[in-house]
Amino acid sequence: MSGQLVDHMLAGLPEGGKARRVYLHLMDAITRGDYAVGCVLPAEQKLAASLGVSRVTVRRALDTIEADGLIARRAGAGTTVCSRPARPSMAADFTTLMPQVVQMGHETTARLLAFSYGLPPAAVASAMQLAPDARVQTAVRLRLVEDQPFSHLTTYVPENIAQNYTEAELATAPLFSLLERSGVQVETADQSVSATLASPEVAGHLGLSVGAPLLSLNRIVRDEQGRGVEYLAALYRPDMFKLEMTLSRVGAGDARHWEPVVNADPAQVAE
Questions:
Q1: I need a labelling partner for 172 at 20 to 30 A (CA). Which of 101, 134, 141, 143 fits?
Q2: Domains, the chain, ranges and CATH?
Q3: What is the pLDDT of residues 112-154, one digit of tens each?
């Protein structure tokens, strides 16, 4: 991303940490539906009091949200939440993410942004239990549904495995399929889900404001010998992607608890 574009995006953010905090708070509330379409937001003075900031800070945050097209402000009518253009979305059953990866490749498209070989970040090497001098292939891809970007994916694959497919193949085929074609027998995977904020580069690729909230998913894939064969660091737009899980109440007495219901035939997809 060019420096000029980054500067332009940073210039569009609320100035100061407090304004950015208010911006993220209101964006999250609107995205969750706390303020439905057509709802009038509390007055600036009331928002300022409830959030412990000045009216100027609230106004800066609202300016940015208005520029994002989420609200409309009219003198005498207040600030109203607007309907947004319909966006395609993806959903995934949290209990069956791995069987869904190949299907993801057929229902979405990917754009290869970066491709290289070298030493992995220390955290990745540790998670994959790689030797200190082990090299990996690092690839950054943007995944799109109906030509709209919804995820930013960074993958790390040991060099000896990655050399079985080309950069061109990675740009057109699902990585999971390429790994299996390379003879990898995937056995287990560990993954974690958290939240983060969009950096200037990621925000530019996903069409978001810098600092916008993102769903973060990290996955370590291992083969039958327990060796790390892929590390995935994925960032998703929360307005276009969600994780779903069906739970069942099991057990008896004090041992009664919730357990996920594993769906052997998932209808949704994810990567």
A1: 134
A2: 3-81 (1.10.10.10), 90-260 (3.40.1410.10)
A3: 999 999 999 988 999 999 999 999 999 999 998 888 888 999 9
**pLDDT tens, 194-215?**
888 888 888 889 988 778 889 8
Provide the terminal-to-terminal Cα distance of the chain, rounded to the nearest Å: 24
